[in-house]
Design a protein that fits this description.
The structure is a single chain. By secondary structure, the protein is of the alpha/beta class. The strands form four sheets. A seven-stranded antiparallel sheet has the order 9-8-12-11-10-7-13. A hairpin with a 2-residue loop joins β5 and β6. The chain starts with 9 loop residues before the first helix and ends with a helix.
């Protein structure tokens, strides 16, 4: 929007199909026609994708990688950004100034405390932007989150408890997991019985908050602001269902408040309820207000410093954490859960 240039995913730029099980063969790729390539969110790039990108970069092209190595590593193998930053031969600059939030906000200060393995600062006043609500069980966390959405946020803060906040959890299963949170909040919005379309084990209804799960470059949409038509809805885009067609079993979704798209029954497999979402799915996104649930029963790989830092930095204005104090302390102490080993660092030293 600023430079009037199109941005694209690496997959689309290289015309790659998304397949987590596919290991690329050694081959040449058509070179990218560019003098300068800027790649953002590089902590999410795995070894295979980085390999393919570099194979498509001409020797005369300059590449700028931007990312936060303290966030969660890629879903695929490797820790590309962390290995590059650890190598002395790679030119690098660390940005220190924060412009997204004021420096004195607790969200910002506690993000730095987490990275340094330090205790969190807490201010439990209504004016605080970082509130900890101690809950010992998943049932208590669920009840607390529903109470925040239904009563406390709208009455005490003037925040819409459904569309003005994003619930986040590290796990999908369990009482405090994403699946149960979505069903509970859908019931809060829709009631016990409501007109809906059932597809792929999910129920969709008007006013439901949803998320696109995969890039769909061919999906047509109508831009309600510019009155223009376009194509492409990306993985992670949030939307609200405006209409459902019970006969055709399709839904009409307004994505990001501006792109109106019709989703056929077959495409509903790439749509999910999004009242709540996993921390991994939020990476690369940010929200004004976040409710973070951290159940102690989550697998150890989901309870570490990188995950907590990623979750905390998704919130711009207010963050509510429902968990046990000991769970937070354990996550801050657990630094090496996401360390990976690959030959990238070895080959960098050889070069």
């Amino acid at each position: 929007e600023v430079c009037k240039m199109e941005a694209t995913t690496i997959h689309r730029l290289l015309d790659l199909q998304v397949d987590d099980k596919y290991i690329p063969a050694v081959e040449e790729y058509e070179k990218i026609d560019a003098d300068y390539i800027i790649v953002d969110e590089c902590s999410m790039i795995d070894l295979f994708l980085f390999y393919r990108l570099l194979k498509a970069v001409d020797s005369s092209t300059q590449v700028l990688l931007i990312g936060d190595a303290d966030q969660l590593p890629s879903i695929g193998p490797g820790q590309v950004l962390r290995d590059l930053l650890a190598d002395d031969s790679v030119q690098k600059t660390r940005l220190q100034e924060i412009y997204r939030q004021e420096k004195d906000r607790l969200i910002v200060r506690n993000a730095h405390h987490i990275i340094r393995g330090e205790e969190l600062e807490l201010n439990q006043s209504l004016e605080s932007d970082f509130l900890f609500i101690e809950r010992d069980s998943e049932a208590a966390m669920l009840a607390g989150a529903l109470q925040l959405c239904e009563r406390i946020l709208p009455e005490e803060y003037g925040i819409d408890g459904i569309y003005g906040v994003q619930l986040v959890s590290p796990i999908r299963r369990g009482l405090a997991g994403v699946e149960n949170l979505n069903q509970s909040l859908q019931k809060m919005v829709q009631g016990e019985e409501f007109p809906h379309i059932e597809a792929y084990g999910k129920r969709f209804a008007v006013k439901d908050k949803v998320m696109q799960l995969q890039n769909d470059y061919q999906l047509s949409f109508y831009d309600i602001r510019s009155n223009e038509r376009g194509e492409g809805v990306m993985n992670g885009e949030l939307g609200v269902i405006q209409e459902i067609d019970l006969d055709a079993k399709s839904v009409t979704v307004l994505f990001e408040g501006e792109h109106l798209a019709n989703i056929s029954y077959e495409q509903l497999d790439n749509l999910d309820l999004a009242y709540a979402t996993t921390i991994h799915k939020t990476q690369g996104s940010e929200y004004p207000h976040v409710i973070l649930l951290l159940p102690q029963g989550a697998p150890p790989r989901f309870l570490n410093r990188n995950l907590l830092y990623t979750a905390v930095t998704r919130a711009r204005q207010k963050l509510f954490i429902l968990s046990r104090r000991q769970t937070l302390r354990n996550m801050i102490r657990t630094e090496d859960a996401n360390r990976r080993r690959s030959l990238l660092s070895y080959f960098l030293k050889l070069s």
